[in-house]
Design a protein that fits this description.
By secondary structure, the chain is mainly α. Helix content is 36%, strand content 9%. Strand 2 and strand 3 (50-54) form a beta hairpin. The protein is elongated and about 80 Å long.
Amino acid sequence: MANATAAKATTIPPRFIRFMDAPDYLGMCRDEFNKTVRPNVRELSNGKQGVAFDRIELDEWADAYIESKAIEKAANQDNNRPRSECRGEPTGGKPWREKRYPGSTRRVVSGKSTKFSEVSDFEKALALVTGKKPSST
């Protein structure tokens, strides 16, 4: 019978929340809690030096805070629009916006690289990194 009772037991949130736990309960740092919340809610004595807050009063403060700070959004605002230019407009607009750069010839030319030092520069850097360190003696 005791096992059936234990299985039905639920966790009841505490009515009083200690000062050290209250900022986490509201999802903010202690400094912000002291500045914005603490002046607006009642404090309760919790032991000799402890301070606690009423969970329901913290919830009421949070509801009022949300009501005063919430950003209103347009009813048919599309929050899931494409973030990339390549996807284009949702109604089938231009898929890519062409960007032209003054130095670009916009054509492919076959040929050989004119910078011959690329390979030797790479080999020198690779040798420096993987080579043996010079002896300090």
